[in-house]
């Protein structure tokens, strides 16, 4: 790579780690007649393999923050092209004012291990239970264990492998929703390539 023409600008600190996932997090209050809610989040990430864990960072003023703080449960639902509109809506409207499941015609499915529902229209949903809350400043970070996962059967091949590249997932890149696509390689391809070259030389 020729860097002779590259000029760098030194900016102040900011959250420029991009792209990030965009997820729809569903939760429900403790009362009998509570309507389930959805909040869209970009500050979410995988944080541990065993036990499987993820984190979501939520501002205290969000309606969902109150619900998840009380119940300690939520589901994380991956966003596809077909869900991008609904994800944006769930990220600009509050459950205090609207029923987002109803408005976006989404289907709430009862969780197996948590009271929070998951979203039928999402290809991959994870039921989560909060293990720790860390107050960071603007956001509270909820660390959570993933208790079980729901995956669309048509994304699983005959050998039982998940073909997530066929789901049409969306990521969030500096204010834009973008489709994930265009395969460049696979896990370990940099070393695999060398081995193939060596083998070919023999
Ligand atoms: C793409 C996108 C990403 C967002 N990420 C976050 C986030 O990581 N944390 C957060 O607190 N709010 C985030 N928001 C804002 C909330 O989704 C929004 O305030 C929502 O209306 C809150 O809903 P609620 O009041 O029903 O909980 C995001 C919004 C959008 C559109």
Please give a structural write-up:
It is a single chain. The protein has a seven-stranded antiparallel sheet, with helices on both faces. Strands 1-11-12 form a three-stranded antiparallel sheet, with no helix packed on it. Helices cover 16% and strands 33% of the residues. The mean pLDDT is 95. The radius of gyration is 20 Å and the shape is globular. It has 202 residues and is an alpha+beta fold. A hairpin with an 8-residue loop joins strand 7 (108-109) and strand 8. Bound molecules: flavin mononucleotide (FMN). Residues 22, 37, 39-43, 57-59, 62-64, 88, 91-96, 139, 172 line the site of flavin mononucleotide (FMN).
Features:
alpha+beta, binds flavin mononucleotide, seven-stranded antiparallel beta sheet, 12 strands, 202 residues, 4 helices, 16% helix
Secondary-structure blueprint of this entry?
Blueprint: E1 20-21, E2 23-27, E3 37-41, E4 44-48, E5 53-59, H1 63-71, E6 73-78, H2 84-90, H3 100-103, E7 108-109, E8 118-119, E9 124-135, E10 139-151, E11 170-173, E12 176-179, H4 189-201
Antiparallel strand pairs: 1-11, 2-3, 2-6, 4-5, 5-10, 6-9, 7-8, 9-10, 11-12
Bound molecules: flavin mononucleotide.
Q: Brief description of this entry?
A:
The protein has 202 residues and is of the alpha+beta class.
Task: Tell me the major beta sheet.
Answer: 7 strands, antiparallel
Mean pLDDT comes to: 95
Fraction of residues in β-strands: 25-35%
Class from secondary-structure proportions: alpha+beta
The helix fraction, in percent, is 10-25%
Shape: globular
**Element-level helix/strand string:** EEEEEHEHHEEEEEEH
Number of beta-strand segments:
12
Terminal-residue CA separation: 30 Å
Give the strand line-up of the largest sheet.
3-2-6-9-10-5-4
Radius of gyration using CA atoms only: 20 Å
Number of helices: 4
- The low-pLDDT segments are none
Bound chemical compounds: flavin mononucleotide
Oligomer: single chain
